Amino acid sequence: MIDEEFMFRENIRAMPPYVPGEQPAAGSQVIKLNTNENPYPPSPAVAQALRSFDISSLRLYSDPFSKAFRKAAADVLDVPEDWILAGNGSDDLLAMIVLACLAPGRKVVYPSPTYVLYRTLAQMQDCDIVEVPFDDDYNLPVGELISAGGAVTFVARPNSPSGTAWPLEQIEQLARGTRGLLVVDEAYVDFAQDSAIDLVRQLANVVVLRTLSKGYSLAGLRLGFAVGNPDVLGMLNKVKDSYPVDSLANCLGTAAMRDQAYKNANAKKVCQSRQRLVESLTERGFAVYPSESNFVLARPGDGNAQGLYQGLKDRGILVRYFKEPRLDDKLRITVGTPQQNEALMNAIGEIVRR
Ligand SMILES: Cc1ncc(COP(=O)(O)O)c(C=O)c1O
After folding, report:
1. Continuous segment of H or E residues that includes residue 206
2. Which CATH class is domain 4-41+261-353?
3. H or E element: which one contains 89?
4. Which of 94, 112, 179, 192 keeps 20 to 30 A from 158, CA to CA?
């Protein structure tokens, strides 16, 4: 028996662990629509970079500042390189922000429900947490977020699990009204109509987070980045890991970033499939939130989301079910290939007939 009380901080003992979506063993035959991965493979340029990767370079530490990757991202986004900070997935950037800004007596604010990791990271810091509930249509509660006065305010745009986004004017209003840092988490931006990136140039308290996990089909590589004013990124730099991005991720991520055409073509396919999926679900009596992401939040007509989740799982199809108030009558379904979506709809049809 370990002496937990002596060893571990009280808040860590009290908090629940973050529970990621199920990851079935590699090679298993399930249709995986539960963690918003891209159904298409990474760019051929990534495959080529992997074939040419010099394995002997792994003997050395990776570039601690990811210079080549940051140059590629800076070119794509048309910002200077010192406006980019790379991390081990955007989760790592979130962790840096929380570590640099939050502590007991300091406040984090975000609308809810949203990405659960914001709460988990805040609990680790034992800071004050203000969760402002969305209304049933997931409108952004701008005024309440501002008046809560967080040292950090998180907004996932598009939001998860709703898939929805809000007009950029509302994000700007929030940024202008907020004294603290406004973090716009754009994990799903590649499937959305627009981005808050221009705000970063105008307002020094805005940071945009991006990831290669979704649009670039590289969830397993673990690479994300922040775009922000160098004054802000300089602070985050102080709390980062010594070598947060490994050499392979630096190399392959740079290749992926330089192939925007491939990423955009896949994102377009996903958005087209999303449209068809929404139509099929609606015909089946689901209420579906308007999505700008690579997933949809959908309520079956009878509200029995848990039964449907289990029925789909029994048929080898994984979707995401959140057993919590306001979400427990809905499923979050990642948009798959047209074939995967058809298999999903067939399985739903079969379950409903029973
Ligand atoms: C809103 C949001 N932000 C960030 C992430 C984490 O992305 P990454 O894989 O870059 O850590 C996710 C992952 O699902 C997400 O949904």
Report:
1. strand 206-211
2. alpha beta
3. none
4. 179
Atom in ligand 1 nearest the alpha carbon of residue 93: 11
Strand-pair partners of 154 = 183
The helix (run of H) or strand (run of E) holding residue 296 is strand 295-299
Are 326 and 285 in contact by the 8 Å Cβ rule? The answer is no
Q: How far is the CA of 302 from the centre of ligand 1 (A)?
A: 30
pLDDT in tens, 319-353: 999 999 999 999 999 999 999 999 999 999 999 88
With a 6 Å cutoff on the Cβ, whether 115 touches ligand 1 is yes
- CATH fold for the domain made of 44-259: Aspartate Aminotransferase; domain 2 (3.40.640)
Q: Is there an atom of ligand 1 within 6 Å of 219 CB?
A: yes
pLDDT tens string 46-78: 999 999 999 999 999 999 999 999 999 999 999
Under the banding of pLDDT at 50, 70 and 90, the label for residue 28 is: confident
Closest ligand 1 atom number to CA of residue 92: 11
Q: How far is the CA of 158 from the centre of ligand 1 (A)?
A: 11
User: What is the residue-wise DSSP string for 245-284?
Assistant: S-HHHHHHHHHHHH-HHHHHHHHHHHHHHHHHHHHHHHHT
Q: What is the DSSP letter of 337?
A: -
Domain borders along the chain are 4-41+261-353, 44-259
CA 38 to centroid of ligand 1, rounded, Å: 13
The residue nearest atom 2 of ligand 1, judged by CA position, is 187
